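RECORD TYPE: inverse folding
INPUT: structure tokens
STRUCTURE:
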């Protein structure tokens, strides 16, 4: 996975803790979760539209 092991992830987490503080981490995590959820739903909608277009084109 991109050459990132457990020690590197721990170092990154410590740096994030220092920069943002422990109080902000839940807010950051929630924001990232919402962003990922929105991205997935947007890509699913596009795929659904593409499938519907293909069905329409195949039926004509």
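DESIGNED SEQUENCE:
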């Amino acid at each position: 996975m991109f050459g990132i092991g457990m020690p590197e992830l721990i170092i990154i987490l410590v740096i994030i803790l220092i920069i943002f503080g422990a109080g902000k981490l839940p807010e950051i995590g929630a924001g990232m979760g919402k962003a990922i959820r929105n991205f997935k739903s947007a890509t699913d909608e596009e795929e659904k539209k593409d499938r519907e277009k293909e069905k329409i084109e195949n039926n004509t």
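NOTES: Residues 19 and 59 are 57 Å apart (CA to CA).
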